[in-house]
Amino acid sequence: MNIGSVIAPHLTSSIEKLTVIPLSDFNIFSADSLPTEGFDLGFGVTVEDFSERMAKLSLGVWERAFSQDQMKEIKNWSTCLVHKYQAEPVIGNAENASSNFLGYVIAHLRLIAPNRTSRNDELYLQVTRPGELDPLRCSKSPFWPQIHLTDCEKVICGVTLKHLETLKLWMPWIVEFCNDWRSHYPLWVSLDFLEKFYLEYTSFRARHLFRVMALEALLCSEHDKDYGRQALKSKIPKLLGWHFDLYGPYQNDSIASRLPELALTDNLIDDMYTLRNKVAHGDQMPPDWLKKYRSGFVDEDVSYASVLCEAAGSMLRLIWLKIISC
């Protein structure tokens, strides 16, 4: 279903519905507070304090499906991403389109500010009377956190009002992208791989592969003279500049210590791609790459292989920011 039909429906019999996803890591490093009326992102999407309404909801029907701890966590959802739309009284394509749309919104917010918001936590509601909500469907991840962030991303993890203001500027693009993703297929593949990185919680090797493949989807084409490694070595420095500090965007002024400089060099891109190939081809990586390379801010130790994954993520995020800002 085209998201436009959810945002601006043409239905003979429709009611107001809401898709609600808890926003993780809101306001961790900022004194900003959410406005009482919420933050309107446009296109039916708001960020709201949903805690009072969650407390009033009757969720007893799901008590058999979720543990007591999970039910308590659901009841404690507070700052939430909310999509309001009109749809038929029965559950159908509109709910799926709304959830898919919020997936695009969350993925773009993660580009602006690393955070652990996940579509695995989701609640569908319908408005029965003014001010009254009736739950239709609820999903809850069996574990938390569901989203894997690298050590450098954890340093600046958190969403502020400034980030939401940037997201609001991006909303027309997000709606276009969601509606017509086939016309932006390389971008869709890149964002899909990037989100798969965040959802992969157990395999470091798979995470690195997802990130470099996301870069390849953006920068490589079978029609180009340069392909794969050579395309990345040719195009990334042109976009970001040689010796650009890839840890620069992850520095946090509220933390006394700083991440060390991670300069964009030919050797760094080479090593990043070599690691990608070793993972993809089932080869062993150099033992030294698995040894401690630097102390972590959140993780205990960060290996050189992990640094290469962080470098790929920084390149990818910065290039995406440039593309959307054009």
What spatial order of strands do you see in the largest sheet?
2-3-4-1-5-6
The H/E string reads: HEEEHHEHEEHHHHHHEEH
Low-confidence stretches: none
Radius of gyration: 21 Å
Distance between the termini: 28 Å
Biggest pleated-sheet summary: 6 strands, antiparallel
| Mean pLDDT level | 89
How many independent structural domains?
A: 2
The tally of helices reads 11
Shape: globular
- Which percent band covers the strand fraction? 15-25%
Fraction of helical residues: 40-55%
Strand runs, count: 8
Q: Find the structural class using helix and strand composition.
A: alpha+beta
Walk me through what this model shows.
The protein is α+β, with helices and mostly antiparallel strands. It has 2 domains: 3-153, no CATH class; 182-325, no CATH class. Helix content is 44%, strand content 15%. The protein has 11 helices and 8 strands. The strands form 2 sheets. The protein has a 6-stranded antiparallel sheet with strand order 2-3-4-1-5-6. A hairpin with a 5-residue loop joins strand 7 (292-295) and strand 8 (301-303). The two termini are 28 Å apart.
